[in-house]
Amino acid sequence: VKRAPTVVFFLDGRLVGRLDWPFTEAKLVHGLDELATTPRAGPWQYLGAVVSLGTFTTLEGEPVNLDELPGPVVLSFFNPLCSPCWEAFPILIEARRDVAVVLILLASHALSGDDRQVLREAGLRVVLDDEGELAQALAVRVTPTYVIRDGKGVIRWIREGAVELKELRRAVLVFPGE
User: Which residues fall within 8 angstroms of residue 37, CB to CB, at 6 or more apart?
Assistant: First the structure.
């Protein structure tokens, strides 16, 4: 940016456009309209959409159809090699008091025996996604990623990266069950 005011439009970390001074209100409105209609990358493209999740296997080896879980449900994409995932783990345990939490476990081969025990004792439903099928279906790019899906299968909230319990609880309260 060489002069001010300059307006730079970013979406999902990528440059969508910019307006250098002088610009008119009409050009600013047009730029904002273009930004609003630009396709989003990553999981946000599914906000407001009904998404079928399918059947997966739990850590205990049992099948679970994620589409049959009553909503709202927090899906937490978790990689055992991701330290922010482990740092957020206590938040998920606390959040399960307010909402169903499903831990979508990527790379379960990286779990130690102790890690498996910690996951089992947490009281969360742990689902294996070793092939990344569910992560790919929802365009998950980083771990942790959190997705709230309501009881009708609609994706209502997404957060990439760390989340605080207060923020997660607020999001759950906005999208209660049916």
Answer: none
